[in-house]
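Bench log, entry 3. Co-assembly request; chain sequences pasted below exactly as received.
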Amino acid sequence: MRHTRHNGRTPCVETDCAACPVARRCWGDLALPLEGVRARRSMPLERGAVLLHQGERMGAVYIVVRGCLILREDLARGGQRVAGLRLPGELLGIESYSSGAYSSTAEAATETVVCRLLLPAAGSGHSSSSLLERILLKVAAQPERTAAPWAGLSALERVAAFIENYALRARVPRPTETAFILPMTRADIGSYLGLAPETVVRALGQLQGSGRLSIHGRAVRLAEPPLECAAPAA
Amino acid sequence: MRHTRHNGRTPCVETDCAACPVARRCWGDLALPLEGVRARRSMPLERGAVLLHQGERMGAVYIVVRGCLILREDLARGGQRVAGLRLPGELLGIESYSSGAYSSTAEAATETVVCRLLLPAAGSGHSSSSLLERILLKVAAQPERTAAPWAGLSALERVAAFIENYALRARVPRPTETAFILPMTRADIGSYLGLAPETVVRALGQLQGSGRLSIHGRAVRLAEPPLECAAPAA
DNA sequence: CGGCCACTTGAAAACCTTCAACCTATGTGG
DNA sequence: CCACATAGGTTGAAGGTTTTCAAGTGGCCG
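Structure output for the full assembly:
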């Protein structure tokens, strides 16, 4: 374990995940051995910092440890959209494994720590089965966690579904008792959901009016716990 | 190579993909060795046949060889939606690798042949690195091919983007010269895109009127070749 | 203080859905 | 062969939802 830098609670070390005290947050239950999974923890990225750019040659796969990354995509037809979020335990960059270039820009929505996974070169044939199997599990599970459960819903339901999905993925402890912070602007939420920012504002107002949640600025508290329709495992 | 059944052009055999004459369609360029990747080809599924049901215990991962599978999802709030398509070379069922149950019902939209991949048990630690690496590559690439490039677009643009994306994924040879068949009803397309079937009809009419494509029933011909914005590799 | 950014609100316009009717092709039973 | 039923497709008009435009508020920071 070679220390490269230090920062209080988030030492920047290159280490085996098996030795990490918070490996469970990344890898879920530890039924599979973690030996051979090596990673290098980053310094905290402050809000607004960009971890990687769309189009950049893919250099690494990251896993989010703490905070939140927002994925922005420049569209061919001009303009930008929010293509996704990455919350603790989720992978970033693996979707570029075959295309070779990152498909979106990843920006810290709040103070964020990531680990850079140390992967063997593709095609080398020297990969550790254990590592590959763990990653495959995560990659396979990710679309289900990440996929839009709000397709074909009304604006109101979309916003509600988004917030409940966020609470699940962010593992908010007791979302009906404690308020949590949405780390995005109304415009970002709108872009992500395919809605105008004003529509997000009005939908939040209606949801609050009907008692499904309460919201003050970016602080939300849910009235009912979200169904574990997706995102329990991994 | 053990024959289990036979049917003209689609013998139902359990074999090593390295020995399959059309392995390139499934696995792309053959830079990585295919040794150790074993699969069992199915009999052709006729239109309407169901390969697997939502909620069913996950028993296998399939790869589409020919035809098209349509993924239908029963929603918690009642009703159904088309959650996706699977075209030749695309994987099916891997997203249930961690949840353990299929998340949607897969129905043949046209005569379809699949191969059941013979995977080692998860967590066994006896997996072939070569197989895992190939599958990881495919799984990583799939969201990019499959993700909705029409989020936040108007109905017209959504329908256009869908058809172009379909032509790319289906590898239609010269989509501007030869017509190809969309293997879905207007209602299915609408469900997939989050639009009413009538809206799909009207959008197709407008696209034809403006010369972006021509359509007769389910046969489409494009005016301009789709940009290879996604889905070139894998 | 002034500027900027996120957020909010209202009113008009654009868009999409819904409803209802009708059409066409296909398949079935008499 | 015809009558009938069914499913997919198409069209028009009405109504609802969402977007757009415009204006205004409040917080934060130089």
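The CA atoms of residues 156 and 203 of chain B lie 5 Å apart. Chain B is about 25% helix and 25% strand.
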